[in-house]
Design brief:
19% strand, 6-stranded parallel sheet, Translocation-enhancing protein TepA, ClpP/crotonase-like_dom_sf, 8 strands, ClpP/TepA, alpha/beta, globular, 2-enoyl-CoA Hydratase, Chain A, domain 1, 250 residues, 42% helix
């Protein structure tokens, strides 16, 4: 006599869609692909949060074990934030070791040219090409324990064999210096002094500044955290609304 089956009991195949649903969950996909919990789709929040973590990946694909932020993922998100009327401010959170110079400068230029209020928050680190990104917003904040490493541009593992290569690197380095000094309160002389300082970094030249030192040198506006960043961004959003409406804020 056959054993009666319970029609309500799920079969082995019927349990699999649970995993498929997780894989197809748009929030999970955004985290996996873009490192974002949400994309620009018109959520209730008027602030868009963009995270830049790990290494900034540019023209060369990095190994899969590296934690990377791909600049081709960030650029469309910044364009969407600029176009979406429901987004009134953009917050950029950084914890990066640096990476591709041109990709980093591209991100920094886009942030600097947004018409909406922007605030950057450096958590953990904003090293190397992360420095221009950190100073690209209207206002910058750094955590008390966060660090920023300032050093010259270099080609790891390669020998500069011709004068033209050195001149190219020198011009690229000047682009970084001009951008940082234009978008922060640090002077060119001080920034280059930090960049070419010897004896602080092992077998290398440069300087690592921590929290309050970054503010003292004029790189960052203030020491603080996420609450300070949100308050500053909301204040700037209100000021922009008042300016756009002639002082009448609804």
């Amino acid at each position: 006599m056959p054993t009666p089956t319970n029609p309500s009991a799920p079969s082995g195949k019927e349990q699999e869609p649970g995993a498929e649903e997780i894989k197809k969950n748009p929030v999970v996909e955004n985290i996996q692909q873009l490192g974002q919990t949400n994309t620009i789709t018109g959520e209730a929040s008027n602030i868009f949060c963009l995270t830049i973590i790990g290494q900034v990946e540019g023209h060369i694909v990095l190994p899969p074990q590296n934690k990377t932020t791909k600049y081709e993922h960030l650029i469309p998100q910044l364009v969407a934030a600029e176009q979406n009327p429901k987004i009134e401010g953009v917050m950029i959170i950084l914890n990066t070791v640096g990476g591709d110079v041109e990709a980093g400068l591209a991100i920094a230029e886009m942030v600097a040219t947004l018409s909406k209020p922007t605030v950057t928050l450096v958590l953990g680190g904003g090293h190397s090409i992360g420095v221009p990104i950190a100073v690209s917003a209207n206002y910058s904040i750094i955590a008390e324990t966060a660090t920023m490493t300032i050093h010259p541009i270099r080609l790891n593992g390669l020998v500069i064999g011709v004068p033209q290569t050195f001149e190219y690197l020198d011009k690229m380095q000047e682009r970084v210096v001009r951008f940082v000094t234009k978008h922060s309160n640090v002077t060119e002389e001080k920034f280059k002094e930090l960049m070419f300082k010897t004896g602080e970094l092992t077998r290398d030249i440069g300087t690592t500044v921590i929290g309050a030192d970054a503010v003292k040198y004029g790189l960052i506006n203030q020491v603080g955290g996420i609450g300070d960043a949100i308050r500053e961004l909301n204040k700037r959003i209100d000021e922009k609304k008042a300016a756009d409406t002639g002082g009448l804020v609804q």
